Structures are given as structure tokens and as C-alpha cells.
Amino acid sequence: MEVFRTNLFLLLIVCASSGYGAEVRLANGDRYIGDVADGVLSGKGTYIWSGGDRYTGSFANDQPDGLGTYNWVDGRVYEGQFSNGIREGQGQLRWANGDLYQGAFAANAMHGSGTFVWANNDRYQGEFVNNRRAGRGVMVWHTGQVYDGMFQDGRMHGQGHLKYVDGREYLGTFVDGEKNGEGSFSWSNGNRYVGSFVRDQRSGSGVFLWRDDTVYRGQFSGNKQHGYGVKEQPNDVSELQVWREGEIVDSRRIEQNEYCTMRYLGRSWMFAATTCVNELAHGKGVAVSLDGDFVVADGVFVLGQFVAGELIEIPPKVVNVRVGTRND
């Protein structure tokens, strides 16, 4: 918004030609009191618009230029630097409701590094682009929730670290204010999830680590286990599991079946069927690598050879380290 008028003296009806303390009245009702040099506003002065807005500070070539204060009739107040009639440089802008911004301005907008404090004591410190939070910043809510990371168009967007007041933490990718992409989410009880998120929910491939060192590596949807996965117990017992919307529908221990052996992708696999031939995997069904890293769904096998099926890569194991801590 262009705050200041140009060519202020085109409509002058009363004007001291030069000197300090001149008073100028315009035909539209605007008024100026201050320094005038060679018929232009120059030096210190106060300009009062007919609508009630007021500027007090430095002028050059009929424009606010330098340090000054602008008061809007709606209660907003800006104190800081001006250049050729616009807010440019360092300053602070306060709203009537108590909101406050302190920092850099460009072309009348909050632009660059600054701090915005809401009336309810929410606080953001970081980068702004055209009045919106954009770039790196830290948002601290009055509730105690904290976000440190990237912003775009006023929203959490990019890599960031979100700490909730109840001890939960998320470290990963945000898109338009939501957890979206790869990240790690931890609970205050020590449980943790590492993997994919879609629209704030655990969806895709991920690893869930319980505080007792039990681990589930597999597929998720809508914050629930959904699809194939491998559950690993602290006693080194592993199970191939099938889930549907958080309900387990099948589970079997992963171990070598000497009557249905198979080598694929440089690994030994478990395949259970009554159709195996000569101790080789043969027939249709589900197979899982003994290391738990791959599953073949709807597989077709002939004499120990993989022929067809959906190859599912199970996410790799992760170290159970709490979000925000170092793993040196």
C-alpha cells in the first residue's frame, strides 16, 4: 500500500515559501507543519491527512525520508526508516490490538529478518517475504509449543523441528503446515516412528520402535499399520505380519524352511507351501527374505526361482535414538 502522497505542493493554497515552521494547507484538507526549502518539504515536519493519518519525521523532496513515525487512524503506528515515501529499512509496526513487528521493511512490507509478537504472546523470529513468514524461523506459541525450521507463505514448509507441550516431537519435512514426506516422530514415553508421512499422518513405509526395543518395519496408512511388515522382538525373534487398517490378519515366524528353499537378490528366503518340489520353493504365495528386508506378495515361484510377484522393500532398521538428540 502506498502510504504517502506525491507532488504535495501542486494544490497548495497556503504556504510559507521557505524557512522553519511553515504551515501548508492543501485544498483536499491535508495539512503540513514543518521545514520547507525552495517550495518543497525538506527537513523535519508533520504531515496530517484529512482522513486522520499522521506522519512526523524527516522529509526530502516532498516525501518522508529518513527516520519518522506514521500513525494510522485505525490505531496502527510505525516507527522507523523511510525512503522516498515508503517504509524501507529497520522499523517497528504496532497494531491497535497489541500485535508488534520489529525488523526489516522493504516497499512498505515486512521483508527480511524480523520478530513478530502477537497480542496473545505467540512469537515468531526469522525471515519474512512480503509480509509473510518465509525462510528460516522460530515460532514459539504462548502454550509452549515450538517450531524451528523453514516457512513458506506463512506456513511451516520444508525441513523443521516441532516440539509439542506434552513432550512429543517431530523432526522432518512439512508441506503447507502439515507433516508430509520423511520424518521422525517421538512420544514422551520413548516410542518413536521413523518414515513417511502424508497430510500429518503416518502413511507409506516406516519403522515403529517401542521403548522395550520391539521394532516393526513395514507399511502404514492413516496412522495405522496397513499392509506387510516385519516385527522384531528383543529376543531376536522376527515375524512376517499382514495388517489391514490397524488390525493384524496374519503373522508367521521368519525362519528357514528346509523343504522350500530359495535364493533371490543374493538372499535366502522363507516360503511356506505344500507345493514345493525337491526342497525348492515352488508354487504361489508370499515369501520373505530371512533378514526381513524384502517381501514378495502374490508371488509365483518355480523350482526355487522367482517368476512373478510384487517385490516390497521393507524399510531398514534404525537406531532408537530420541528426536533432537545426537547419535555420535
Instruction: Please give the alpha-carbon distance between the first and last residues.
Output: 52 Å
Structural class, by secondary structure, is: mainly beta
Beta-strand segment tally? 27
Radius of gyration over all CA atoms, rounded: 33 Å
Mean model confidence by pLDDT: 91
Number of helix segments? 0
The rough form would be described as: rod-shaped
Number of domains: 3
Give start-end ranges of low-pLDDT stretches: 1-19, 323-328
Largest sheet: 22 strands, antiparallel
| CATH topology type of the largest domain | Histone H3 K4-specific methyltransferase SET7/9 N-terminal domain
- Any idea of the CATH class of the largest domain? Mainly Beta
- Tell me what the CATH architecture of the largest domain is: Single Sheet
Order of helices and strands: EEEEEEEEEEEEEEEEEEEEEEEEEEE
Strand percentage lies at: over 45%
Query: In percent, how helical is the residue content?
Result: under 10%
